[in-house]
Amino acid sequence: MTLEKLKREYDKYNTPSMFDALKESIEAQIVETEVYKGVYYEIFPYSFQRVGMRKGRPVKQFSRLKSSDDLYFYGFNEKKQIVEVREGCEIENQFDYQFIFYNDAYIKSLDYDNDKELQNISYYNLDKSHQIETMLSIGCFGAGEEEYFYDNNGKLQKIKIRQFELNGQEGCTLYHTFKYSQDGSLDSIIKSTSMYEEVVYTEKKK
Prior knowledge:
The mean pLDDT is 92. This protein has helices at 3-13, 16-27; strands at residues 32-37, 57-58, 71-76, 82-88, 95-102, 106-112, 118-126, 132-139, 142-150, 156-164, 174-180, 186-192, 197-202. The chain starts with a helix and ends with a strand. The protein has a 13-stranded antiparallel sheet. The chain is mainly beta. Helices cover 11% and strands 44% of the residues.
């Protein structure tokens, strides 16, 4: 997959009718739904921790909540794979959608806003161990490439991130570096460039 091919695919999926067709197809596969206040599942490695977010909490009776803002509905297929994420936005009972497709060689993710406009399409390419090797994405604000690095035990150590503007101009290269506690759990995530670094996530100690 190249950025040119991905741009054509982005244009293909960026229509309300395509959104409706995908939603109908995906939701026909859902056999179980879980609801949380705040993001909960790491569909891709440390996906929300990398932007400084923390895990949300389960919601048992979401119909009693006064607002749907920041509610996350995770739809699972019969293989227990998450195939749809609905995220409540600031407009009441309006949702952004993420549709996820699984393949032996890659995982594809499409993100739509509540107006059925495609925000981003991403391909996560898998190695022989089914770990993510690279990611390629394109969206309404630009494109990105990621390369994943693991240690000899298969533990994620670093992600290299290249970003491109809509005109193709490349921005600075970012790195996310992962630090672990002695028990192997995540301790912190450091974001860096050639000019600076900052800790974007630190795990709370119990």
